[in-house]
Structure formats: structure tokens, C-alpha cells
Amino acid sequence: MGTYKCCIFFTRRFALSDATTPGDVRALFTRHSAGAPYMGADELRHYLAASGDAYDCAYADGDGDGDAAERIVDRVLQERSRTPRFGRPALTVDDFHYFLFSEDLNPPICHSKEVHHDMNAPLSHYFIYTGHNSYLTGNQLSSDCSDIPIIKALQIGVRVIELDMWPNSSKDDVDILHGRTLTAPVSLIKCLRSIKEYAFVASPYPVIITLEDHLTSDLQAKVAKMVLEVFGDILYYPESKHLQEFPSPEALKGRVILSTKPPKEYLESKGGTMKDRDIEPQFSKGENEEAAWGREVPDIQDEMKAAEKQHEDDTLYTQRDVEEDDQKKMCQHHPPEYKHLITIKAGKPKGAVVDALKGDPDKVRRLSLSEQELAKVAARHGRNIVSFTHKNLLRIYPKGTRFNSSNYNPFLGWVHGAQMVAFNMQGYGRSLWLMHGFYKANGGCGYVKKPDFMMQTCPDGNVFDPKADLPVKKTLRVKVYMGEGWQSDFKQTYFDTYSPPDFYAKVGIAGVPLDSVMRKTRAVEDSWVPVWEEEFVFPLTVPEIALLRVEVHEYDVSEDDFGGQTALPVSELRPGIRTVPLFDHKGLKFKSVKLLMRFEFI
């Protein structure tokens, strides 16, 4: 019994219910055990084959495929401290439920640790896990700079690290900091050493360091020397001055590469200051919410419409950086040893963004746009953006008014083929949850191959149109059975002082606008083990890049409490009844909290 104090003299008691076995699980057990009260390894093996499970999934970690079912039976009985009654190890219906409700034995995606995409295409064919201002520990204005956020990013598989290089106070060395703010610096050499140490702990595929360069030529030469000394042979740089095609992730395995654009900040006294400072913040409603889960992810169509409406004068179509002559003058001062190390050349050429999107047939490069610039251009020229990303790299970064290190809807970049959708990894909120979920695909290696249709040009010259009304390609049916684990991971009175929690689940899709939706179950009152047994159907027009979103909240009259979340690539969901572990608002996995769900493609 769970006891809650109501007032000074009275207490309330609530029965602590165990995880009840859903009817669908009982029906599965009966079907595959031929009505018998026990399921042996042979019957379990038939169930695994019937559910389409490959024996190389998480539970098949032994030597032979044929032993997977036996290992499952032995492990379940061992963990439940049960000795088989009749000599032959076998599962009861409750044991079978335990197996299905085990994160390790029955995960929601099969390829959780396995790279299975073709990794031999040029870099432009991949979405790449990208950080923004990777050295910041908190907000954009006053937090400390450190190598710790860089290490944490690399440990979760981030492949693009951004460093802002500035002269130190004595002008004889290089610091990393967010310029013209109160952020405390960290030395470049410390960041480089940490990158080398942790670059490949989560993925063997290349790490790209994007350098925001605010240095004099003598300090650039010093950077070149530092980079060569720290990375040595693992630093990749091309022999030719310009690349006509980027190398593949496979060819760059275990390598570090540099990307930078010409410096411009020394000339800011002539005009521009912080990017987007003169731009009225968009979609700020709820941006400063203190709730753990933050505001809802904005719809990308709304973002494009608002950006277009706010900037009717087309100011965002013209770059506001520096005069072309000044940029050329700066570029001429790059020391040759520094320029030679830059593999991915970047910049924002003078003139209209639309013109920059035409690309150059003789060389590839990287173009950077703020989220607002992308929304503005995408409103009218979405297919131009997609076409540009066939060969070139496009990096999208948060607008300058996101002082609290919040993020935008990443699908704004992904649906237009942008490879580097840069995020503040130290922030929190739903947008970052989507980023974490997207890169669970392809073994979590940080590189997700774009769908073929995003890379194709039709005979009539047309490319994928992100705004087109497409037919439904696949339909996903999701059933949420139940959840458990909160009582292990939270204090008894965390959600409600006077009674057990009233949990409800939210389930939906993040993707192209036509596919994006959120629905929710009813709230189950006074239960640490809520049983919902509710089903939802999601028609999908672009399932290849869609994410399944799952959240759990505790209903409260004043403000609902957060109970966990996850996002999973739809393309990698394992059909059938699966265990879905939940994560906290920072993206860290709970020890015990999980849901039992069923996925079916119809």
C-alpha cells in the first residue's frame, strides 16, 4: 500500500498495482504456445520469426543464431528468480510479458548499435549531427566556455563541433569564446586536445570542426601549427585547392577535417553587429517557459509564412556581412599553411542568397544561413535549396535572439536537404529531443543518409519539393499499452503530495508539415503503473525522415508535470509489441521508466 498524508490527522492509502499483462500479450502467448500454459525456446523462436525479428537484434548477442531464443528464456527465468518446474526451461505468460517489457531484450529499434546505411557516398548525401557554439556551458551571453560541452557532445555522437576563435587578452594566443559577450574563455589548445581524445568514442566516422575565425594572420599561422601538432596524421586535408566532390564518410573514417569561412568581425565597426539583432524575434510565445519540456515545436510552414511576411522588403535576400573588396583583402592575408588545411571551404558571398544557391559546377563548398534566412528563402525557393544540397553543404544555425540557447524546428532544415542543422546541445526542450531522436538512426553514428528522392533530379529538371502535397506512402498504427518505472525513479510525493500520479501519454509524428501531429491518451488516475490501451493511426507522406514522438505527463489542475519523453526514427521501428524507454528533459535515459507499445505498418 502507498500512504499519503492528507492533513495533520488523516492519511490516504492506495493499493500499489503491479504491471498487469495486456490482453494482446496474452493472446500472442496463447497463439504461439498452442494454448499450453508454457512457452519453450522452440515456440519463442517461432514467435520471433513470425514477428519479423532478426536474430542479430539486441537480445541475440551470443555466438549462434539458433540459440537466441534459448538465451532469452534462460535470462528471463534468471532475472525473475524462477526455476523451471518440469526440467525444460519455459516461459509462463507473465514471463513472456516480462520479456516483451524488457528494454534490453525487446528494444523499439533493432539497429540501435549497427551502422547499416551506405557510407560510401559524398558527405553532401548525409544529414550530419551538428552542434552550435559547442563550447558554451549555458546561455549565449554570460555562461562559461569549456571543453566539457564539447566532450559531452562527442560522447553522444555529435560529428560537427563549432569553435569561435578570438585573440586572447595579450593578443599572442587563441581563445575560444562567444565574442562581444560576457562568456569566460577557454583556450583553443585545450579544446583541440579534448576533441582528439573523444572524437571517436561514439562513432568512427569523421569529426568536422567548423571554425568561426576572428584572428589576425599571425594567429592563424599559430592555429595551423597547433592543429597539425594535436591531430597529426588523423587530420585530413585535400591536395587540390578546390574539391569537385566531397569525400565519403567511409573514406574519412577516423579523420578530423576543418571548415571555416573568411573573417568578417573586424569590419563590424563599419555597420552590422550581432546577426539578427535588428530582427524582431519570431515565435517567441512560450520561449521562456520554465516548464521542463518547454514550448511546442513550431510548425515549419508557419515559420516560413511569418518570415516572409515580416521581411517583405527582401532584406534577407541580400547578405549583410561586409563589402566584397574587404573580404578579398582579408582572404589575401590568410597564411598559406592555414588555408591549405581547410577541407570544407565556407562563406556567405555578397549578393542574394538565391544566387548563392546556384552553386559552382567546378567546386563544392559550405553555405551558412540562420534559421530565419532559411525560412525566408524557403518560402519561395525551396527547390533551389534542395538542388544546392545535392553537391554542396548547407549549415543552418539558430537566430541571434536565442540568448537562452533554445533551438528551432530541425525539420525546417532537414526537409530542404540541409546537412548541418546546428543546435545548441547544452539547451533543453522539444526541438532538441527531436535532434537526439533523429540521430538514433543508423546505429547512432552521427551520419544519416538522405532518402534517395532528396538527391534525385528528374528528367524535366525538377527536384524534391518540400511544399508539395504528396500522397500517403505508409501508415503507422501505434498502440500504447502501459507504463511503469516512475515509482523507482521518483519520490513518492514528486508528482502529487496527496495521491499517486494521474499519467497520460502524448503520441505523435514530427516530420514534413502534412505528417506532423500530436495526440494524447486519457489520464489514468491514482496509479504508478498506468494502463491506457489506446491506439492511434498516423498516415505518412514522407516516412523516411519522420520521427515518432512520445511524451508522458502527469495531469495537474494548475500545471502538468513532466514524466518522460523519447523520439524514434519511424524508418527503424521494429513492428510488434516493444519496450520504449523514456528520457528526462535533458535527454538522459531514466533508469526504470518505460512504456509498452505496439507498432504496425499498414
TrEMBL record:
Q: What CDD domains does the record tag this protein with?
A: C2_PLC_like (cd00275), PI-PLCc_plant (cd08599)
> What is the topology of this protein in the membrane according to its UniProt annotation?
Peripheral membrane protein
In this chain the PI-PLC Y-box domain maps to: 368-454
What Pfam families does its record include?
C2, PI-PLC-X, PI-PLC-Y
EC number per UniProt: 3.1.4.11
Which Gene Ontology molecular-function terms are recorded? Answer: phosphatidylinositol-4,5-bisphosphate phospholipase C activity
Cellular localization per UniProt: Cell membrane
Which reaction(s) does the protein catalyse, per the Swiss-Prot or TrEMBL entry?
Answer: a 1,2-diacyl-sn-glycero-3-phospho-(1D-myo-inositol-4,5-bisphosphate) + H2O = 1D-myo-inositol 1,4,5-trisphosphate + a 1,2-diacyl-sn-glycerol + H(+)
Q: Name one GO cellular component term.
A: plasma membrane
* Chief location bin: membrane
Q: Which SMART domains match?
A: C2 (SM00239), PLCXc (SM00148), PLCYc (SM00149)
Q: Could you say which enzyme class this protein belongs to?
A: hydrolase
Keyword annotations of the record: Cell membrane, Hydrolase, Lipid degradation, Lipid metabolism, Membrane, Transducer
Can you give the residue ranges of the C2 domain? 455-584
PROSITE patterns for this protein: C2, PIPLC_X_DOMAIN, PIPLC_Y_DOMAIN
**Biological processes, Gene Ontology terms:** lipid catabolic process; phosphatidylinositol-mediated signaling; release of sequestered calcium ion into cytosol; response to stress
The scientific name of the source species is: Leersia perrieri
Q: Which InterPro entries match?
A: C2_dom, C2_domain_sf, EF-hand-dom_pair, PI-PLC_fam, PLC-like_Pdiesterase_TIM-brl, PLipase_C_PInositol-sp_X_dom, PLipase_C_Pinositol-sp_Y
* Protein name per the record: Phosphoinositide phospholipase C
